[in-house]
Amino acid sequence: MTTPSAETLASVVIPAKNEARNLEFLLDEVAAALAGRPFEILVVDDGSTDDTAAVLTAKRGTGLPVRHIRHARSLGQSAAVRSGVIRAHGAVIVTMDGDGQNDPANIPRLLAALEAAGPATGAVSGQRRKRTDSGGKQWASRLANGLRRRVLRDETEDSGCGLRAVRREVFLLLPFFDGWHRYIPALILREGYAVSALDIVDRPRQFGRSNYGILDRGLRGLLDLFGVWWLKRRFRGRADVTELP
What is the pLDDT of residues 111-134, one digit of tens each? Predict the structure, then answer.
């Protein structure tokens, strides 16, 4: 079998904590969406205590190209995404949540949009329509997104959507901090790359419950927002580097 090159391989990074029942169907959906092209799936198990390991072992036994990346203790979604990005082999990273709310059928659309946009575009992000979260979470999300757009001017309606396609070389440039995954579009713009958006329809969670609350996310988000604003202010632009003979 010919080993796919990094340029043709799509790496799907799925951070997951105690999402075994959702991973059961989600991984098969990813495989169906990417049938006909080379891909790998990296499930970053953020200290799960459920049957995640058994589910991934069973999926590998069916021939699914899934890799089990495990944190010995829970470090949060941002750290899980970062661990997957660092270990991915593909030139393009697709991130998605492990709760099953992101529909993998959108992955080919994201990849096609990123390819069509050209190298000046660092990412194509999902933009959720017809969200299925509770009214309280949707209200908090609208408030946070509005404040973020005014402060960071990142022209992104929905930075909290976990489904996006990002060039790995761009991902590796981004400064890391806990909560980083919510500011990826703004951080990519900071590096001088464009970010596009693609409308997607959110799905309801089938099993389990969210690991995040409204209050704790909101309080930490204010501090993170100031931090990203500071990072933007302290950046002088992407260097145009040439190595001379």
Answer: 999 999 999 999 999 988 865 655
pLDDT reported for residue 134: 52
CA 13-183-9 angle, 5° bins? 25
List the one residue out of 216, 234, 229 whose CA is nearest residue 77. 216
Range of the domain at 214: 10-233
Q: Is 229 inside any structural domain?
A: yes
Q: What is the C-alpha separation between 69 and 205, in angstroms, rounded? A: 23
Does residue 15 fall inside a structural domain?
Answer: yes
Q: Is 4 within a domain?
A: no
User: Could you tell me which residues come within 8 angstroms of residue 183 by beta carbon, excluding any fewer than 6 positions away?
Assistant: 148, 152, 159, 224, 225, 228
In a domain, 26, yes or no: yes
Whole-prediction pTM value? 0.86
Q: How many domains does the chain have?
A: 1
CATH number at residue 87: 3.90.550.10
Interval 42-72: pLDDT, tens? 999 999 999 999 999 999 999 999 999 999 9
Per the DSSP assignment, residues forming a β-bridge with 67 are: 42
